Amino acid sequence: MENFEFYSPTEFVFGKDRENDCGQYVRKYGGSHVLLHYGGGSAVRSGLIARIKTSLHAAGLEFEELGGVQPNPRDTLVYEGIRICREKQLDFILAVGGGSVIDSAKAIAAGVLYDGDFWDFYCGKAEITAALPVGTVQTISAAGSEGSGDSVITKTDGMLKRGAGSPYLRPRFSIQNPALTETLPAYQTACGATDIMAHVFERYFTNTQEVEITDRLCEAVLLTMLKETPRVIADPHNYDARANIMWAGTVAHTNIVGVGRQQDWNSHGIEHELSALYDVAHGAGLAVIMPAWMEHVMPHNPMRFAQMATRVFGCEMDFAHPERTAAEGIRCFRQFLRSIGMPINFAELGAKEADIPALVEKFGIGDGVRGGFMELRADDITAIYKIAAHAEI
Ligand code: NZQ
Ligand code: ZN
């Protein structure tokens, strides 16, 4: 195991009706004049925003509103949020929604306290050294942004989707009521489940030896998702299954399952080009890319894939041909994705094979190498997109 530091300061407030306490948590973490940030409409329609406002009023807090965050959140609304925060001298950002709303809130939080263009953080020109405090009320189990120090924003000019990370972006508190996710369409639930599993796989496929504790934690999250996802697809009101998925999504991405080991993250980078170009859901893009990446890199270490196949998907180990077990595990993963309604190839996602050169170009690898479980060059990225284009079960 490698040396590591693990800092996860978020207070998680979990369970039924807990969103009604959000005002007191904003107060607890120093907020007095709040930006209430939310999405395109679901939280308004469900009555959640009205309950949040009641809670803020009850805690004696003033607030300004900024709704309209769209999936794959855009820089344009971030600039608007920064302007409002400065003009009204706001001191806290409350994000009510999914990863897109939370990521937009984090970008605003960092941008407000920075003299330059907030995009500098996302294009690698500057490091985040301060941010306004952010709290969240989570409405979808997926991105893990409620417990992560990451934010992913799309620059409208050129549709560039890029991430920034900093301990300063970790939310002060996150309110998690699994019942709030019951209004999700089955497709969004499945996209979220795919993203959660991908966050684990990005950490599971490693070259670091002797990491039994994190291997086993990863497998626990994956097994939970295999069990609980079909249950919520079959019955959207299964609170306990929703609760297990919600906590699995947080555990998957606070990095507690990834410490002390080399991680990969190339599938995420490769996917971000798809969701940027076609504006598809991140989880759906991952359903197409992640198994393709697995097939391409499996020869690098068939035994690690065979471990996944046997421990997670219950495949039988073929000791003479571990690569066969490995391939069977990847097939099982793809079959699971299909069974929960995810796309598994370009046509099902709405992507075009003819765009592959443009996708590789935007990935920006040039003549270089991208590190990870297996080092990738431009040819590898092309090969992964091609596998993804034609994948079948
Ligand atoms: O905007 P509204 O109307 O709320 O609709 C949303 C949106 O259309 C809807 N929704 C959310 N909660 C709902 C609901 N509909 C009904 N009932 C509810 N309770 O679901 C749709 C998707 O929402 P979004 O916030 O986009 O989903 P998600 O949480 O998957 O976030 C995706 C974004 O997070 C980024 C992705 O790239 C993508 O931009 N990621 C962020 C990460 C991070 N910050 O750590 C890591 C991830 O790997 C990921 O890259
Ligand atoms: Zn993700």
3D architecture notes:
A 6-stranded parallel sheet has the order 1-8-5-4-2-3, with helices on both faces. With 393 residues, the chain is an alpha/beta fold. The longest helix is centred in the middle third of the chain and has 23 residues, at 212-234. The protein has 2 domains: 11-180, Rossmann fold (3-Layer(aba) Sandwich), CATH 3.40.50.1970; 185-390, Dehydroquinate synthase-like, alpha domain (Up-down Bundle). The two termini are 36 Å apart. It contains 15 helices and 8 strands. The protein binds 5,6-dihydroxy-NADP (NZQ) and zinc ion. 5,6-dihydroxy-NADP (NZQ) binds next to α2, α5, β6, α6 and α10. Zinc ion binds next to α6.
Topology:
Layout lengths: L10 E4 L7 H7 L4 E6 L3 H4 L2 H11 L3 E5 L8 H14 L3 E6 L1 H14 L21 E5 L11 E6 L4 E6 L7 E4 L9 H19 L7 H23 L4 H15 L12 H13 L3 H16 L4 H10 L10 H18 L6 H4 L6 H8 L14 H13 L3
Parallel strand pairs: 1-8, 2-3, 2-4, 4-5, 5-8
Antiparallel strand pairs: 6-7
Helix pairs in contact: 1-3, 4-5, 6-7, 6-8, 6-10, 7-8, 9-10, 9-14, 10-12, 10-15, 11-12
Zinc ion binds next to helix 6.
Task: Please tag this protein with its features.
two-stranded antiparallel ribbon; 15 helices; 393 residues; six-stranded parallel beta sheet; 8 strands; single chain; globular; alpha/beta; Rossmann fold; binds zinc ion; Dehydroquinate synthase-like, alpha domain; 48% helix; 2 domains; binds 5,6-dihydroxy-NADP
